[in-house]
Amino acid sequence: MNPIRKTLVGALTLSVLAGGATAALADSSVGSTAGTRAVPTSEQAQLQKLYKQALAEGGTLTVYAGGDTPYQADYLRDAFLKKFPKIKFNMVTDLSKYHDARIDNQIATGRVVADVAQLQTLDDFPHWKKEGALAKYKPVGWDRVYNQIKDKDGYYTGVMFFGFANVTAKTLGSNAPVEAKDFLKPEFKNKLVFTYPNDDDAVLFYFKQLTDRYGLGYLKKLLAQHPKFVRGTQAAADTVGTDGYVANFGSAGSYSGLSTTSIPEHSPWVTWPQTAAILKKAPHKAAAELYLSWLLSKDAQTNSIGTWSARTDVAVPAGRKGIFDYKNTNPLALGKFMGNRTGLDRYKALITLYVGDVKGVDPSDPNGVLGLYPINRDGTQGR
Q: What is the annotated signal peptide range for this record (predicted)?
């Protein structure tokens, strides 16, 4: 999921939802510190205490973040380092389906190098909890996180909401497709670009919702438009506005200036809570606790994530509904879809019959350097 852009859904939120920073709701339970942007004093104090502990531990942190470009999660690392500059922060971004396999291997071999898993593969977290692979930790802000997206025992939590909707070329103006059936118009033949749905479970779920509602006939008509398929939602979004391609659904936009994003009013679209946890055998637990607590702090949720907050006390992006208020998306549905691996794999096999096998290199690791134990983006110190 994409990002130095602000994550895949960051692009959707920043361009569609009128800017990344959201205004904090008044919180009468805690006070604000002068000179800060609505940061509760108690959270500030807790974060500073955790910072000291992380430095005493060695001051190193490795986060495995889901994404489909190498630098997609760097905006989080950069915001974190502005607050805690003495931490050596290794942000390793790759497709979540590769990171989870990587983490499984690290657990199995007894050589865990990742401290935090921050992924789209929502079904991994209950599985890892059951296996005893996660550390129990309730970060700063835990009580304010939506109950629906956090483990009641404290082993994992949603940290922000992402969403995939429409990306269309600015040149289309009011003629841009918005609803799913708009993409079937004759004028868009040979001009559509999509992420391989059999390569990204969130995109697969987007297609699943469409075929559930409109039937496989919709998919046949869409493919009759001769769309281009690429690896990575960011690549799909970035292609819009170039080489004659004018529209996409199932991604979150780009910063090319050539496209805009929109949310359908009636057709289904996809949202979910990007979820994070600390690994039980993480080599830097104190730094991991600092990171999760910072990420869920009111300050970071208000000013740094660029999307719908995981907290109930942070305002929704300007001009938008609350994440649970849209009738044509369910933020909990992707997790249920991914939890039924048999059903998911059957639908993926069906889709593959229509769109063909996935072709191309891993968009987050085009040079194949990450390997089994990456600590840095280039795969060094851990091959």
A: 1-26
Which CATH number fits the domain that encloses residue 123? 3.40.190.10
Under DSSP, the state recorded for 38 is S
Residues 296, 261: one domain?
no
User: How does DSSP assign 337-352, residue by residue?
Assistant: HHH-HHHHHHHHHHHH
Domain containing 195 equals 163-270
- Note whether 259 and 11 are within 8 A (CB): no
What are 323's two structure tokens? 């994440």
In the predicted structure, residue 19 carries a pLDDT above the cut 80: no
Q: Are residue 96 and residue 169 in the same domain, yes or no?
A: no
Q: How far apart are CA 379 and CA 383, in angstroms?
A: 6
| The residue to which tokens 């699943």 are assigned | 208
Say how many domains are in the chain.
2
Mean pLDDT of 325-354: 98
């033949």: which residue's tokens? 189
Q: Is 305 left (phi over 0), alpha (psi -120 to 50) or beta?
A: alpha
Question: Is residue 248 a part of any domain in this protein?
Answer: yes
Kindly tell me if the per-residue pLDDT of 6 is higher than 60: no
pLDDT number for residue 134 = 98
C-alpha–C-alpha distance, residues 288 and 115, integer Å:
6
Residue 200 lies in a domain: yes
What residues form DSSP beta bridges with 273?
161
pLDDT higher than 60, residue 27: no
Partners of residue 260 on adjacent β-strands: 168
Residue 364 falls within a domain, yes or no? no
- The mean pLDDT of the chain is 90
Choice between 347 and 34, residue whose per-residue pLDDT is larger: 347
C-beta atoms surrounding 316 within 10 Å: 17
Contact between 310 and 149 (Cβ < 8 Å): yes
Task: Judge whether residue 202 has pLDDT over 70.
Answer: yes
> Is position 134 within any domain?
yes
The dihedrals phi and psi of 352, each to the nearest 5 degrees, come to -60, -35
Residue 47 in tokens: 């974060």
Torsion over CA: 217, 240, 367, 77 (sign): negative
* Three-state secondary-structure class, residue 279: strand
Residues 227 and 258 in one domain: yes
pLDDT in tens, 223-282: 999 999 999 999 999 999 999 999 999 999 998 999 999 999 999 999 999 999 999 999
